[in-house]
From TrEMBL:
Residues in Ig-like domain copies: 128-211
UniProt name for this protein: Ig-like domain-containing protein
Key words of the record: Membrane, Signal, Transmembrane, Transmembrane helix
Transmembrane stretches, start-end: 224-249
Originating species: Onychostoma macrolepis
Top-level division of the source organism's lineage: Eukaryota
Region (Disordered): 263-287
Presence of keyword rRNA-binding: no
InterPro entries: Ig-like_dom (IPR007110), Ig-like_dom_sf (IPR036179), Ig-like_fold (IPR013783), Ig_sub (IPR003599), Ig_V-set (IPR013106)
Signal peptide extent: 1-20
Amino acid sequence: MSCMSVLFCLCWWNLIGVFGESVSVMEGDSVTLNTDVTEIHENDDILWKFGADTSPIAEISREKQIFSTYDGTDERFRDRLKLDHQTGSLTIMNIRTTDSGLYKLDIVGVKWSSKTFSVSIYARLPVPNITRDCSSSSSSSSYCSLLCSVENVSHVTLSWYKGNSLLSSISVSDLSISLSLPLEVEYQDKNTYSCVLNNHISNQTRHINISKLCDTSSDQGLPLFYIVLIPSAAGSLLIVVSVVICCICRKCRKTEEDRTDSALCKPTTRKTKPKTEAIYGNVSKKR
């Protein structure tokens, strides 16, 4: 029995070394990966590594007086790493989604120990948007169709609540997709409804006012507005067209009258034959 216990403990220790400690953090925040060491011994060397990269991102050697952080091979950690000189714990500041992955700690000295951290970074959640779903036909005229939606989300759950009671939910693990969840409520429902978007470390909630969002008077007011507006606009347009036509006709009539008056007053000219004058020359008289 004791052998089985020892074997179980060894297996458990190996599993911890392989899978490590899980750490979840919000994008833009800071996270500290603890060594669980109160003080580094004089002969201890501490190395922090990220992912499959064999080059350290942080290093401590008391004997050599080395207390350094590095940017990484792709410089992803530039000016964002802080090392505790007493405990060797590593702090990542202004963390990004690209910082997700495995971080390995090696403590080499009188005793050798190793520890891994599986770091997951979650993007900040948007507040859900609730709209009246006009494309959906309600099962009854006394019901109002609502739609709660979010865009560009991953690893989240979208849920409808009535008070503190869960009504429905949908989860997604894909990257950057749009998510929506419908709900039908009665127009006269006085209960409190809310749509909640959450992941492992945070949530965003949107509460709704049923009487305001499902107000049918707003639907009736829009056609009535057009019923009044369209005849008024048509009448105004007809008046404008009539005035323009009247002005054109009056102008044409005046132009025609002016032409007639000009024709009557214009003097007439008669063609006259040119007078022929007799030309007398010196004629000799006969004797």
